[in-house]
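Predicting holo structure, NAP bound.
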Amino acid sequence: MKALHLLEINQPLSYESNLIPIPKPGEALVALHAAALNHRDVYITKGQYAGIKTPVILGSDGAGDHRGQAVVICPSLNWGKHGLHQGDDFQIVGMPGNGTFAGFVAVPKANLHPKPEHLRWEEAAALPLAGLTAWRVLFSRCQLKRGEKVLITGIGGGVALLAMQFALAVGAEVWVTSGTDEKLDQARALGASGSANYRTEGWDKSLKQSAGGFNVIIDSAGGDGFSALPGLCLPGARIGIYGGSAGKITHLSPQILFWKQISLLGSTMGSNAEFRKMLQFVAQHQIHPVIDRVFPLEQGNEALAHLERGDQFGKVVLKIQ
Ligand SMILES: NC(=O)c1ccc[n+]([C@@H]2O[C@H](COP(=O)([O-])OP(=O)(O)OC[C@H]3O[C@@H](n4cnc5c(N)ncnc54)[C@H](OP(=O)(O)O)[C@@H]3O)[C@@H](O)[C@H]2O)c1
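Done. Tokens:
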């Protein structure tokens, strides 16, 4: 089989032949039809991730066949027994173990789930890591409910866009931010009630004027812009944080947090059980992940560069076979 290998950090992935993996006891071999990229893959290739091990085949998202069954792979390995957090042995498919940018991958049988029938291979591959992360941060952590107002920042991101689709499906009112006006137009066309460009001076004040305030805010940026978020919260709001793309949070006012009784909730991926619930929800609401672009597997480096530039609206997918 062919696979994209990360041989060294800060080097392009190498597209070369590899032996078909031999599953260990308890594992299953999946013949992959499609894989998807996450920002994690960019961070790893650049050496900006903890515990990098090379050589390795990256890729956390995949959909394919196992013994004639169409499956999607839950990318959380060894979540452990606590609902509130992952255990010490937690790992993610695609580093340190080999991932899905390949013809075949071996993963624990327990991580295989039936592919939602309404999804094409590319859509099914786009769902796992982003869908699981969006599910947990919105529903398990922030307890988003029908009729609540939610702000999702950086809507061009893969997780952010699925979070918007899930929140709309549950009957929440969704508002979004982006650094690109065109992405804001696209989000409104998909059902967002309103939007703001976070690169515009005073964006938070005008958003507050038009939206009034939010019960839930979902953020993956952190950085200097985060300190504006508590001001946009209604009393008793929950802020879910699953990423830190813009770096360390600065100038956060403790007073506004405690006076408004705001909950700050960190969230990381999710368990196999949450993955199952997420798939059921996607099937029930016939949700189709938004796909920005599909590249053939051999063009994995172009796909990574595309994601790194941040031009995408939705998931970047690799077609395998
Ligand atoms: N904890 C977890 O389990 C988990 C899981 C998945 C991802 N993550 C993390 O979450 C982040 C996003 O991941 P992803 O795979 O969804 O990435 P992605 O698809 O590459 O999207 C990144 C998005 O971040 C937005 N962004 C960048 N700077 C921003 C800022 N200053 N303010 C607001 N938004 C900003 C951009 O949105 P616009 O283009 O709309 O401006 C961009 O499209 C990464 O840091 C990733 O490591 C964490």
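Residues 132-266 form a domain with the Quinone Oxidoreductase; Chain A, domain 1 fold (CATH 3.90.180.10).
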